[in-house]
Design a protein that fits this description.
Elements (H helix, E strand, L loop, with lengths): L5 E3 L4 H12 L2 E7 L20 E8 L2 E6 L13 E6 L2 H12 L3 E7 L6 E6 L5 E6 L6
Parallel strand pairs: 1-4, 5-8
Antiparallel strand pairs: 2-3, 3-4, 6-7, 7-8
Protein name: VOC family protein
Organism: Rhodoplanes azumiensis
Pfam families: 3-dmu-9_3-mt
């Protein structure tokens, strides 16, 4: 069994993918627009004016796959009650990613040292996706 996040970005999917490519070095594995569907949509199933919007996409972030869509294309994505955890190597990488995600986003908990991690912080990016950044403490050799 595998659990993979699926983000419905409500019309901002392509913008989010470009941001995640720049921020994380995400790799786009697949992207299909509504107009490219091999089967016609049922009446009322495709949002009006959505031909060029993303019906389904898959990106890789490190070893993980994240799926994305424009969904209903209404422009108001919500991600209440869910956060994606990023476990990174090193404090500098944690700080870099936190700053990038906070740019245009909302800091939920400033990044800093905690009893369980060398660096930990929570931030919602400019699309409303909540991220928890964790830099594990280096083990003593």
């Amino acid at each position: 069994m595998k659990v993979q996040p699926y983000l419905f970005l409500d019309g901002r999917c392509e913008e989010a993918i470009a941001f995640y490519e720049t921020t994380f070095g995400a790799d786009v594995r697949m992207l299909m627009r509504f107009k490219d569907s091999p089967e016609p949509s049922e009446p009322g199933m495709r949002p009006p004016g959505s031909d060029d919007k993303v019906m389904h996409a898959e990106i890789t972030l490190g070893d993980s796959v994240v799926m994305l869509s424009d969904g209903n294309c209404a422009g108001h994505p919500t991600f209440d009650g869910v956060s994606l955890s990023l476990i990174v190597d090193g404090e500098a990488e944690a700080d870099r990613l936190f700053a990038a995600l906070a740019d245009g986003g909302t800091v939920q908990m400033p990044i800093g040292k905690t009893f369980f991690a060398a660096r930990f912080g929570m931030v919602a990016d400019r699309f409303g996706v909540s991220w928890m950044i964790i830099a594990q403490p280096m083990s003593a050799s």
